[in-house]
Design goal:
The chain has 385 residues and is mainly beta. Helix content is 6%, strand content 59%. It has 3 helices and 22 strands. It comes from Vulcaniibacterium tengchongense.
Length: 385
Amino acid sequence: MKLSRSTLAVALLAALAAPAAHAEITIDVIGGSEVSFEGLVQADFYQFDSDTIDYGADSSSDLDGSEYLNELRRAELVLKGKGPGNIEWVLGYDAKDDKFLDVNAKYKFGNNANHFIQVGQFKQPGATMEELSSTKNNDFISKSSITNTLGTARRVGAQYNIGDADWGLTASYFSRELTRNREHGNGYAVRGYWAPVNEAGNILHLGVSYLDKDTDGDALRLRARPMADMVPTRFVDANMNRTDRASFVGVEGLWVRGPFKLQAEYMSTDVKRYGGADDFSGDGYYVSGLWNITGETWGYKGGVPTTGLPDNPGLGMWQLGLRYDTIDLTDGAVVGGEMDSITAGVNWYWRSNFKFMLNYVKVNQEKGVLEDNPNIIEARMQFYW
């Protein structure tokens, strides 16, 4: 669904006119469960300085090589419940993408948030640390290429987690995505992490993950957008048949010192093929740095960083960020392509419910003898409660 600029403006003004609220709205206590309601609305705008591909092309495009897109990115509605006892549950739906989000129930042993079993649809341990973090607090408008291309996010399954504030170990078994005609293929995943330093404003985190899944249908397609989530075209595209299973290994690191955060992740994949087809290997990584100009720092929970509210709600929290990202999906006869990008961004968290983001992205893509190197200006307006 594409929105005109006037429709988008009206929607954003309506959001800005809404009364301020905190992270969630308490509804009622039903059957011993404290029920609350959360939401996230994001609207994106992209301006392309295109190279060989017109990424903004649509029915109204004049194909002049410098196009734009504006569209609602997310419209997430989430019900949460605490209780009875040590049970927690969540029911989430993205009205924009017409898909279920987290839909699961969790039982915490001894009321320990780091020791639990979980059944339903949830983000898999084989996803990146970036994916496991809260979407509303993404450092950049587009997540990294390994998160979007190699990571396995939400699937239906069961998982067991044990740990405390400084370490954790998670194992899961999963099947398809809950929404019809989405991702499928049975598999399992594990993730372990350790924070040898975990103090207020001083965090060091290390983690590893492994995921193995059936490619289901004996076909696998790995492709990457040019660091702009809403574009339909992917220049980097590895499309394979005669595939059996795919495995993914991830390594992650995080360092927080006062208002500075340094984060990096690496992920590789190995695809087993049959019928004389050569196995495939691909990989990628990103390194990003963020500076809270207004002095705030980050927290740490469940092996991921957490972003708090501005110290001065009226002034808001201002951030500057820089990221280098790369992915390689070419191996032997499979020429999926390579992509390198640099993203510079500024974020403004205003009061308790609003976030505004502006990114400049420089992308270099190669596939065999072909190249495509767009420059993109991206903006996001976000309202959450």
